[in-house]
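Course assignment 3, question 2. Fill in each field.
Student: A.L.
Task: Predict the tertiary structure for the chain below.
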Amino acid sequence: MKMNTGFRCNTALISGVAATLSLALTTFTAEALDNNVQIIGNLVTEPCVLDPTTADISLTFGNLVAKFFYTTSRTPGEPFIIRLLGCDASVGKTATVTFTGTESASLPGRMVPDAGDTQGIAFGIETDDDAAQPVPLNRPSPVFELSDGTTELRLRGYVQGEPDAIANQSILTGPFTGTATFEIAYP
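Answer field:
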């Protein structure tokens, strides 16, 4: 099948122009300059390294009944650990963790489910201790003390109903996932 695009080309003319441009570009030489490449950085010592077995965290809440949120508003916390190895408390004494994700407009500091999932709920994180301090999304956590060797950052994740969805009993059911990344800082 022959196609007519409506364009006509003179290949000899195009070849001649390309050869002229090629020749013009090769007639100039680049001069080597002193210090024309500069590499700048800052080599630092971190007090700990992240245990790769705790780099990917998955929390499973199973089947949650929407009516549960209308009376209780949130699930109990599901514990998880971020483990830091080889900690040297002489290099750094504390750590914080910042979880980054899409924040809920109606529950600030908590994460909304991924697009296309259920609606009317958000995911929260708190410390796994008696104080159960909130770990707001997109902000540093409360400070964790480091100890020599292994330090475990003990946290809990939970699912919470959004206030309007609870008031209107409009939580959309179905499968849900939430995705966040975390970063460890040593202030």
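Instructor remarks: The CA atoms of residues 45 and 91 lie 7 Å apart. Confidence is low (pLDDT under 50) at residues 1-25.
Grade: pending
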